[in-house]
Amino acid sequence: MILVTGATGNVGSEVVRRLAEQNVAVRALTRNADKVGQSGSVEWVQGEFTDAASLAKALRGVDKVVLITPAHADMVAHQLAVVDAAQAAGVKHIVKLSGLGAGPEAPIRLPRNHFEIETKIQESGIAYTFVRPNLFMQVLIGSAGSIASDGAIYAPAGDGAISFTDVRDVAATIVTSLLEAGHENQAYEITGPAALTYAQAADVLSTAIGKPAKYVAVDEATARDAMTSGGLDQWLVEAFLELFQIYRAGYGAAVLSETVAKVTGRPAHDLNNFANAYRPQFVAA
Q: Which of 46, 184, 194, 201 is the most buried (most CB within 10 A)?
């Protein structure tokens, strides 16, 4: 039995879908009581990262865990609660969604936090696989509304190039690491096959979806106001702004797409493939 936390998010939902397609027994953790129940090979269970009893219940009979939680001020505590519960339950393998550049000397909070969690997993004695992607291509779907209304994508990315990574490749790497031997105690840094500026990404999107999509660079203050007014938690707002600081400085341009091919046996999706695959979501906005 495999437990997937963060099962309704971008990556988690894709992991659950892929496991279900292969009729793998999977237990999906959700906070939504209305979603609890059985759906094919997927058993949906309710749980909270702050509720040790619910985690212990969710982990009964589980031998592998996909560890995903939202970026949050309490992300370290939330994930370590799952690690502690997994250790108590006798889990054999944890596949953790981490972040590119995770390490103790990372200049911003998210990769430092991911590395702290990775270290605790290693110390637990449980076999691990760390999957460390760059910025998801799917974040561009969040601009569908502004593309429809203004023909524009707004971001504080300057002209820094980013090796955008498709969530489908992230999920495929996770699923392969779960189901095939030889991926234990590995860290996989993965990216898309090219580093593109936001302006270049906007051009690719525009061609694929048949709508104007011009990139408009905004400053941090404007981006902060927009995210805050959109209801994002302040910690998350600042974490995102930190990410874009390092993107503007050129630290998001590494291309490590060969990892996807090495692990999954097929090449990473490029942005054009993503844009065509997700075209309905852009066109419908």
A: 201
Residue 248: closest CA among 163, 159, 165, 164: 159
User: The tokens of 210 are what?
Assistant: 């048949």
**d(C-alpha 111, C-alpha 67), whole Å:** 15
CA 210 to chain centre: 27
Spell out where 47-151 has E strands. 64-67, 93-97, 127-133
Using the structure block, give the residue that is written with the tokens 């600042």: 238
204-243 pLDDT tens trace: 999 999 989 999 999 999 999 999 998 999 999 999 999 9
What is the rounded average pLDDT of the residues 64-76?
Answer: 95
Please write the tens of the pLDDT for every residue from 80-107.
Answer: 999 999 999 999 999 999 999 999 999 9
| 10-21 vs 167-179: helix crossing angle, rounded to 10 | 50
Q: Which string of DSSP letters, residue by residue, matches 144-194? A: HHHHHHHSEEEES-TT--B--B-HHHHHHHHHHHHHSTT-TTEEEEE--SS
Contact 98, 122 (CB under 8 A): no
Question: What is the rounded distance in angstroms from the CA atom of residue 261 to the CA atom of residue 177?
Answer: 13
| Residues 6+ positions from 88 with CB-CB distance below 8 Å | 56, 59
**In the chain, what percentage of residues exceed pLDDT 90?**
94
